[in-house]
Recover the amino acids of this structure.
């Protein structure tokens, strides 16, 4: 039925590709492209014989629009799934626009070099205007809206779990559960245990940015910014138990604030264990999280890169991580004139994910929605022309596929609220 | 009156040298020798004009007995003060024996390479025999006892504060306060604050060994070994306040067990702040305290050495450290048929030390007793021939000089005991 070009072959991409191959009724041809061809070939070798999807591979440097254009022209896909690095979002969008192909990604564009003065100026202007200071946001990609519309193309932004499924949950709540949604709390809980005193699921530099950036939330039509990790709550998560969580800025707050009409407050909380936070703090205190090179024995060494070399390889965590994730949204609002509350969430088990696709739940919960987003686009179930986030489409077919493809969700009425 | 050769020009040596120069009635000539001649010359330049002591300097590699012998022959000192590294104790003792010169040091011999199989074999045999596993102990230096006696020479081992003054306190308690000492608790409290979240007063590798080595104490004629940091107490220290302290192995327990007749239990406690311990633990967990080289960007890097490069230079802590140290011994026992308890201790202020000798109290409390030990030997007040620890001499003249030279002590009857 559809031919898809996947750019990227890391943890999340591998899950998305494996899940596409399980749905060979929809994804009849896949081209897997990344900087490292051997990774693509290895994955292809694992999958062939277990799927009817016809798989090809290609080498591409996705930083280079020209290379991506050439690849698209050769492959002639119906859709480009960008599961590479967020740094490459714009180069890939340019290429898709040039070739007239729909595309999706799983995370907001962020510049690779946040010290670049051109970026810095734009960023600081936006922080001043908008009132929040996350280095990632939608402005860069929303700027493509008119061009995509004119070209009759669709770009689906952020089709992972959060952002992604969380926004589909909001659209579902808006469509079926509420006349007016007043507050949304997005809760991202990882109850997984890898058995190491300290390890990070991905690049420690990105982990650090998360915990050291100011938090922010949307309230009464404006952003409220608070010091990093200054708003702390505990919550008793289904399938996981009681966990500490902290308010963070998160990208989907920005689009939900525009698209959920009448919403008064949107917050995002993520769980962090005390041990994780203590290690981050101690490492920061001694300078080990610094990105500024230090002269050591005649060589320039970037402390956080040396730390990365000492820590367990994130890829090695998969087989040893046990426990579950629980990600979802708590809503308060009004239905048929009555106040009500509801909680939509998914619980995902690290070991079950690993048995199914050789990745733990962190990659699984992002990779599956990427596949489903692709399915929505190639089947034409989502077909608005322009640049959109997931809550701007009909949630029902997406919600149905979540249940069918390993991410079943629950709706709980009158849940425990976050104060 | 006396000519002394000082080997070493680091933090402790600088204090000892400055204090010798304040006692130019005793120390009429000093030769300062170290690996780095410029350090000796710089200290000489600071002191000249402010003392009658005649100062010369020399370069020496104290690892090499021959170089030390040549230096002693040239300088012709009455005493060698070894305030270099503990690794060099034996080379210097050999040189002094060859030249017929008395000597003292401030810390037990420890091999530089604890992986050396010759050392390893001896060490493991001793641990098995004795029942404790500190990598430093007196056996190596006690083995010189007969040779020193025959040569009519004296070696004073460990004339710092702990070991050193703590043993003099014990001898004083034995001479004046008790007929029988039953228990000794040595309490080493550093209540100093340098204002950094984490920094070490000396080499972090040595700090690490301290907190990661098994603790041990002497009880009823044998060693009791316990897991690292497993015995924790709090104590309310005069001049400092309440502090957490942990039982450690410490070298003077070994000599006191032999020399304080009838003693039933000897323990050593050192204070550590929770923040210090948390940082050490986190750094250990991620591998930053490892001494095993790691391959990084084509170069072998020893994690703890890279950490050392990131941490504040210990020498920079002096001017910014505030607060006090409190080091002393609590005794229980019998006098005139009655049970009694007593506590002898010194309180030392980091800032006052810095104003006097440009070093904080950690170096001060070790350097002053080194000077006093030297005074005991060159004045003949301590003159037994052989290899001895401080408690084996008459404590009274040493105690008198502590009061005169910046380390006044108190005796408190019926103190708070450690349970």
């Amino acid at each position: 039925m559809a031919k898809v070009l996947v750019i990227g072959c890391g943890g999340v991409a591998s899950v998305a590709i494996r899940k596409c191959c399980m749905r060979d009724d929809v994804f009849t041809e896949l081209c897997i492209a990344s900087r490292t061809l051997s990774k693509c070939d290895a994955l292809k070798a694992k999958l062939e014989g277990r799927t009817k999807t016809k798989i090809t591979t290609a080498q591409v440097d996705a930083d280079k629009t020209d290379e991506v254009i050439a690849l698209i022209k050769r492959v002639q896909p119906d859709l480009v799934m960008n599961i590479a690095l967020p740094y490459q979002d714009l180069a890939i969008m340019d290429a898709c626009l040039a070739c007239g192909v729909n595309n999706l990604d799983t995370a907001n564009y962020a510049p690779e070099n946040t010290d670049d003065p051109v970026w810095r100026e734009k960023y600081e202007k936006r922080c001043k205007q908008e009132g929040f200071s996350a280095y990632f946001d939608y402005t860069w990609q929303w700027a493509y809206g008119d061009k995509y519309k004119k070209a009759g193309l669709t770009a689906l932004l952020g089709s992972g779990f959060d952002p992604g499924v969380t926004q589909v949950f909001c659209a579902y709540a808006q469509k079926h559960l509420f006349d007016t949604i007043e507050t949304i709390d997005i809760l991202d809980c990882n109850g997984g245990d890898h058995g190491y005193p300290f390890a990070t699921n991905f690049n420690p530099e990105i982990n650090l940015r998360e915990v050291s950036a100011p938090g922010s939330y949307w309230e009464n039509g404006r952003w409220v910014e608070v010091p990093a990790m200054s708003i702390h709550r505990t919550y008793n998560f289904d399938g996981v138990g009681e966990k500490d969580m902290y308010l963070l800025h998160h990208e989907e707050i920005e689009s939900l604030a525009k698209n959920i009409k009448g919403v008064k407050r949107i917050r995002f909380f993520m769980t962090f264990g005390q041990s994780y936070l203590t290690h981050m703090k101690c490492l920061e205190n001694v300078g080990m999280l610094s990105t500024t090179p230090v002269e050591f024995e005649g060589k320039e060494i970037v402390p956080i890169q040396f730390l990365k070399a000492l820590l367990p390889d994130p890829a090695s965590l998969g087989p040893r991580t046990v426990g579950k994730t629980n990600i979802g949204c708590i809503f308060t609002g009004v239905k048929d004139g009555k106040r009500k509350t509801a909680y939509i969430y998914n619980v995902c088990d690290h070991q079950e994910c690993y048995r199914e696709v050789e990745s733990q739940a962190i990659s699984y919960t992002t990779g599956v929605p990427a596949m489903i987003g692709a399915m929505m686009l190639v089947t034409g179930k989502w077909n608005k022309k322009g640049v959109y986030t997931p809550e701007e489409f009909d949630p029902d077919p997406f919600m149905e596929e979540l249940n069918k493809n390993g991410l079943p969700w629950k709706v709980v009425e009158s849940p425990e609220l976050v104060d």
User: Anything to note?
Assistant: The radius of gyration of chain A is 21 Å.
